């Protein structure tokens, strides 16, 4: 895969024009040259925005793990595929070669088969960032099972909801996990969750922290003894291009999480292509993405994209602050990392620490820096550029989503001049459009609107598991013949895009998408709570933090407000996970409502953000007097 690099801006424009003039032939050429197919496609693309239905490389047959592993064995068998860096710096790093990965994936795949997992079955993976996590994804893909990774910071309730939504047959987990100086009882969380899951037939348990855990007779099995018995080869299941590869849940603005379904061929082609170009990946590079594989960034740019290119991909189990705030930079020096991809929230957190943590490490191996997950503010961008890149590494601010499967708008290093806070230009084949509220496309530059994509691309999610109508309603109904992203964006005078944030009720906290509705649902279950409204407000480190307005029931009981705040956050932790806890909770006697009973979140957002100069017209509210009360008692 050597000749699909884009090297100059001129070349970018040429390639881009070609890619949008004839997307089918553009992607066909890439698919033809760089991958292993058992059968060629009959048709590159067919689509219908009304149904909506999108099919890429229909008729083709392949297995993604042959593309990510087997075909590298001849030339790169002894090369490190996964470089595992444990939580504790005193524990040795593991270099898993392509040969070894091939064997371990086959053994794992054989264990899955022995436990009755077949093509099309759903397997839930709830693991910390240890090699078995990546191996589990690949083992599912090897036999055509659909993986559904649930981030191992989610609570037992959140885990159960996701298992039940796609009726998974198996869970792969571990006894526990390390997180800095703490351990987390993962198996305990799984046991609790499985009390309400009927579809689970077996649980495979990786031994990681050697804790004493409960093993349910007949259901739970230690993984290692099964692997020891398993055959070291496993023939790949031959998949159709549009067979589902995985489900990954993302928060919606209302109701239950959405199980985004990604399929095989298009996802493979697009993640491999974007990995190579956005990170300007070269054969001997050591690439490190700090995301968790529980999020799409980890799926596409720790596992599939890098391995499809035969790269060495670093997997880090720990946190940036343990044993101290130099941990990231120590790892960069230790493994001579060449591409480093992280989130603005991590950059902001580390930027607040003493510069000595950075300066005592040699970061000269770095070539390209990346960010993802939320808008990066100017200050953080410059800190990253000056102190980590030493003004010598292009920064790629990559905009994309769980739904898009791969990076959509991003600079290409050494060809697109970067400007802080701008994701810059669309990648080849991606056709963004800005739309006004009436549904008309806003042409020209120096404009802003709702960000849509007006032509299909290979790695778009194909449906929401079990709910195609919701897929249509959420993404294809706001604007005709367009995919609606849920983000707002502006296009500057040269055509660069800057993402301005969500236009719906999703708040991005430390790079994690959180729907406010499920958090409100969780709080409202507290016996003392009558009603609540959650909004995001700008936060120095997290980007956004959550602010809760809570109306208490009139029980006559006088309760200690600080205790109530703790109880409310504990409920959120239990039902969703600690990432969704509220930074500030204000008790109030009412919430501003429209006459149709809708909470006016716009006003609550402004008050929480200390931006009350222009609250807009409040006279149409049902209860305008409440606004002053809320302002008087705001928590600073
Ligand atoms: C990959 C990922 C998607 C939402 C997206 C947008 C925000 C992601 C961004 C960005 C500004 C960037 N987002 N990257 N905003 N600049 N470079 O994060 O997927 O977890 O589904 O989140 O994240 O709001 O709509 P996901």
UniProtKB/TrEMBL annotation:
Signal peptide: none annotated. GO terms for molecular function: acetate-CoA ligase activity; AMP binding; ATP binding. The keyword Nucleotide-binding applies. Residues 70-462 form the AMP-dependent synthetase/ligase domain. CDD domains: ACS. Belongs to the ATP-dependent AMP-binding enzyme family. This is Acetate--CoA ligase. It comes from Leeuwenhoekiella blandensis (strain CECT 7118 / CCUG 51940 / KCTC 22103 / MED217) (Flavobacterium sp. (strain MED217)). The lineage of its organism: Bacteria, Pseudomonadati, Bacteroidota, Flavobacteriia, Flavobacteriales.
